[in-house]
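U., I forgot to send this yesterday:
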Amino acid sequence: MLMAQCAFAQGGGPGTAGARAAGMGQAAATLSDVWATSNNIAGLGSISQLEIGVAAENRFLTKSLSTATLAAAAPLGRTSSGNVPGRYGVVGVTLQRFGDRLYNEQRVAAGYAYRTGVMSVGARVDVLQVSLEGLGSQRAVAASVGAQAELLPRRLVFGAFLYNLNQAKLASYEDERVPTVLRAGLSYRPTDKVMLNAEVEKDLDRAAGFRAGLEYQALPALALRAGVLGLSEQLTGGAGLKAGRFLFDYAAAWHASLGLSQFLTVAFRVTAAPAPATPVQP
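Result:
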């Protein structure tokens, strides 16, 4: 039971991606980075540069509980400012594999998000394949939607993400379906250096889980993080380092009975040339 709860990122569920989110107790519904392709598709709406990321995670030092993820996000339509999201929104893709030869899950996801004013909305489609040695493979297609809104500009953000709203069927036996999961959370910035996140996650077939985390920008290039997951009883911590266009993040989670989990991600931001400004007419 403990292993099932703590590895809930698998089993066809939405999971979370990126060591930044992992270090903050996986409270990621309000975050905006390339990993929003997995955490809350609406978060892509605020991305202003082409970004590519790779992630590796291992649960409880068990080889069969390892996940590898590749994600990319690209703004559509250049703007005259390098810090403004694409005029026509942002697209993102994710490739993910979990497990080993005996049991594994593979996911291909594509999504789109658009930001207008203080709000971002997005949608995502996943093609999920679950394989069990000796029993073959099953595939399912899951549709998801998300939203983020600044309740107080640059201070308070609300985020919500509904995964598998179509309740996709994974197998006919006992009507097995991909989990349908709702996440909702708040992110508060009391200062420019501190972010506090709190989130609730509810699966239709499981008890609701609470998670919370904080991020402290100790230096312009260094962020420190900590968090807690209530349902799976884990404590988390991590750090992020910015080096030029590269972002390096590491996180660890500790469970009293199952032990250590580790997360590592590397992201690269491509600075595109801005579109030429429209000349002012005399």
